[in-house]
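Practice problem: predict the structure.
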Amino acid sequence: MRPADRLFRIIQLMRATGRAMTAAEIAARMEVAPRTIYRDMEHLIASGAPIEGERGVGYLLREAFDAPPLTFTFEQLEALAFGMRAAEMLGDPRLGQAAREAKDKMLALLPPEHAARLVGAPIHAFRAASQPEPPDCLGDVRNAVSARKKVWISYHSLAGERSQRTVWPLGLSAFGAIWVLTTWCETRNDFRDFRLDRVEDWKVLAERFEPDENRTYAVYLAGLQAS
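Answer:
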């Protein structure tokens, strides 16, 4: 059994038992030596699990706790740090705030040495001075994608053409600081991409959509890969 899996099972066992348990008792359930449980308990407590107790006395889970212990390699922590920093730099304000809140939650659960690596990971994401700020409509459109709500847009294409469309927002892609919305366009009855920095006006509609099997973001991406 992997250590991370065992830590999760220990939490579930203590939660189900609802009383103090000795290391020997837990070890018998996990089929490991008591000294392994001592190390596991030290790790869980350092990770923020609400466990009271000590060697030779027993351990008690103070309250409901379902979050599995978080263990990452250094490269995984770098990937998380980069993703959070990119969300702050390239996303809308609400996405940036969500990234900061997610980081705070992770720091509360990670072992101290892992938390320090997450905060101090030497990898960053920046927006060049020549790159535009995130488009004003990004937050609303992003929420519309999640809520499956139709969006009306007034669009000014790179070719200079202006149009108004009602679209089904299926997914978002970031090409550096340029955000592109992939949609099912009701006007064209086909997939269409729209650069959000070219959207002059927009409105999230109350009407929802349910994409069928031929009009999904996955189908669109599969078509790109096949072309």
